Each structure stands twice: as structure tokens, then as C-alpha cells.
Amino acid sequence: MKSVNIYIIGAGGHGQVVADTIIKMGFFPKGFLDDNKDLLGKKILGIPVVGNVSDAKNLSGKFVVAIGDNFMRKTIVDKLEFSDDMYFTVIHPSSVIGDDVEIGVGSMIIGGTVINTGTIIGKHTIVNTSASIDHHNKIHDFVHIAPGSHTGGNVEIGYGSFLGVGVSVIPGVRVAEWSVIGAGSVVISNIPSHSVAVGVPCKVIKHNGGKK
To answer: Which CATH number fits domain 90-207: 2.160.10.10, 3.30.70.1150, 3.40.1160.10, 3.20.80.10?
Structure first.
């Protein structure tokens, strides 16, 4: 195993997927950090829960905020105020990634993903199991592309937005910041910011407030 102290913030389901991915990258995480007091001292996948989220400030190493909820993930990153070089970027070895793709720090690229040429992935973004991002996409910070979702070429997914399981986005479409696209939806036109949209074709059904 490669030697570096990696701490995973969040010991829930997504955190465990991230832990398994890190192990497959050839590292063994030093520990989980989680605010659930019942987990303290327990081992998950052989990895101990060594403290709560705030304890990260007293530890030396690299960190990944493995929380699926975009707003919560951003809140933790903002609270910690760490420099970019303190975050670990997770990329599953089974992922197929174009040579010129840019992936921001702290992002999590999970098994079976495909990210094609010219694409930029922001910081602390999740591209989850078997999702595909086609050429020249712009995926902003704190986005979550859920398992089995697919985007065509030249798509933009705005800051903090979420694509549910099995979403399809046709080429050239923009989903603006802090929007939520429901599972199985087909996005064929631009989605405005702070929207909840669902269906085939995808339509806005409500607005979700002023997250930023």
C-alpha cells in the first residue's frame, strides 16, 4: 500500500464507497471522521472511526469530504477552511478518463465512470458509479452526478447541482446552479438555477430556495 495519511469525512454509505475506491487506488485510509458519536472507535472496512468532523483540524494528512449531499459537503469544506493541497482526489482505477480532462481537488470519481476529452470537473464533485460525461462538459464545484447518469457533449452542470440516478442530458444543455434533476429524467432544454425538475421530458416543478 502507498503511504499517505488519508482521512475520510463521512462514514455513511458514500463514505464507504469512497474508502473502498481509495483502497483500490493502492492506499489504505488512516481513518473516518464522523459526527455520529455511536460510530467512534468502531471499524468500517477495517478502517477506524477516529473522531468527529472538527477533529480534522488537529490531524496531519489529506482529506476527502465523502458526503453525498452537495450542500452539506460544501458546508463542511467551508467550515474547515483547508487549502486545496490538503484534499485528496479519488479516482477509481476502472474509470476511463480522457488525457486532457481536468479534475478538481477533493472530487470523487467512482468505479465504471467514463469522462471524455475536453471536460472539466470542478472541486469536491462526485461522479458516481457507471456515470458517463461526454466531451467538453463543464461540471462545476460541489456537483453530484448520481449512478448511471449520462450527459451528451458540451453540457454544463452548474455549481451545487444534483443529477439523480439514471438522468440523461442531451448535448448542449445547461443545468444552472443548485438545481435538482429527479431520477430517470431526460433533460432536453436548459434548467434555471434553484430548480427541482423531473420527467421525460424534464420539466421544472418547483424552486428550491436560495442555496449558494
So the answer is: 2.160.10.10
